[in-house]
Write a structure and sequence with these properties.
Blueprint lengths: L12 H20 L9 E4 L7 H11 L7 H13 L13 H24 L2 E4 L7 H15 L6 E6 L5 H14 L4 E6 L4 H11 L9 H20 L4 E6 L3 H13 L6 E6 L4 H9 L4 E4 L5 H14 L5 H20 L1
Helix pairs in contact: 1-4, 2-5, 3-5, 6-8, 8-9
Length: about 325
């Protein structure tokens, strides 16, 4: 799929239609897989693959710099999605007629996505985007949770822990979704746009939104993980995946998971081809683990993979360990035969 570049303003409906075909195919393939009923079938996409980036920019501007999303905003946006009537946005959102018209034009794409996931019993990870998009993406995802997460965990928001505000957002969103009476679901990651966000902040002479160093990000990640794990253990109606290649964070989370005797709604994940030793170790010790498999042509997936390599540069020592373990396993199988 083609994702929107950071300064995108225009759009091509044909691209969105092509992307919808890719999304449909992936969701249908995912739905056909036979898995443990306790483990969700999951697909991840970017919202800007099926709606213009300008929509999420407009909603981001409505939310404001403090990035506070209220239950009323979620109610009104979900009503607009449900009915197709953007008049519900007139009171809480400072949107002009052109902006409202653009939202109305693409509400069918949003509803199509939700209904498809619901009918195919597939959970959808809404991937994080650049900070000028992310508050709008977050609001849309919370509104979709309000519509589709009443009895299932259909929509999951992604939280990037390398951003200073993320920990607060996790606390705010879990409380908000609980207050509106539906189920919260999330994917917890470190983040993949660090270089771009730092350069943008420097250029615009604003505060860097990214934590000062890797250790600060790791500490934030661990605090978020602990908060969510304790919430699930207390019976909160949450479901989430801890997606990380950091062995220290994984060990802390696994220790908390075990000590709290958690039996459901918490998962671990790594990218296919990265952190194989971690994934195998988790699976062999009984933890529910997922591998994220990017799909598409080389040109389409390479930018995504390159960002993940940059994100996981601190973990590259693990790649050497993976190679050693693979070589040992090959030798073992040869000698066995």
């Amino acid at each position: 799929m083609i994702e929107a570049p950071p300064e995108s303003s225009g759009y091509d409906i044909n691209v969105f239609e092509d992307n919808k075909n890719v999304v449909r195919e992936n969701i249908e393939v995912c739905s056909s897989i036979d898995v443990n009923p306790l483990h969700p079938k999951c697909v991840a996409i970017k919202l800007t693959a099926i709606i213009p980036a300008q929509i999420v920019k407009d909603l981001t501007n409505c939310i404001g710099e403090k990035e506070i999303i209220t239950p009323e905003m979620v109610y009104d946006l979900s009503k607009a999605f449900d009915s197709g009537d953007t008049d519900y946005l007139a009171n809480k959102f400072s949107l002009n007629q052109e902006q409202l018209k653009r939202i109305a034009e693409f509400i069918p794409n949003i509803n199509w996505l939700g209904k498809l996931c619901e009918s195919e019993n597939v959970s959808l990870f809404v991937d994080a985007e650049f900070t000028q998009y992310q508050p709008g993406v977050r609001l849309i995802t919370l509104a979709l949770m309000h519509i589709f997460n009443k009895e299932k965990y259909t929509f999951w928001n992604t939280y990037q822990c390398y951003l200073k505000k993320t920990e607060e957002h996790v606390h705010m969103d879990t409380k908000l979704i609980q207050d509106v009476g539906v189920r919260w679901a999330g994917k917890i990651v470190r983040g993949a746009y660090m270089q771009y966000e730092r350069e943008k902040a420097l250029k615009n002479k604003v505060e860097d939104p990214v934590h000062d160093d890797y250790d600060s990000t790791s500490d934030a990640y661990d605090r978020v993980a602990e908060y969510l794990l304790k919430g699930v253990a207390e019976g909160k109606d949450w479901r989430f995946i801890l997606a990380t290649h950091n062995e220290t964070s994984l060990l802390k989370a696994c220790s908390t998971y075990s000590s709290l005797s958690i039996q459901k709604n918490v998962y671990f994940g790594q990218i296919a081809g990265m952190g194989e030793a971690l994934s195998c170790g988790l699976a062999q010790t009984g933890f529910p683990v997922y591998k994220l498999v990017p799909t598409g042509t080389v040109d389409e997936v390479l930018p995504w993979l390159s960002r993940r390599m940059a994100e996981n540069s601190h973990m590259m020592a693990g790649a050497q360990r993976d190679r050693i373990m693979i070589q040992q396993e090959i030798k073992r199988r040869i000698l066995k035969n």
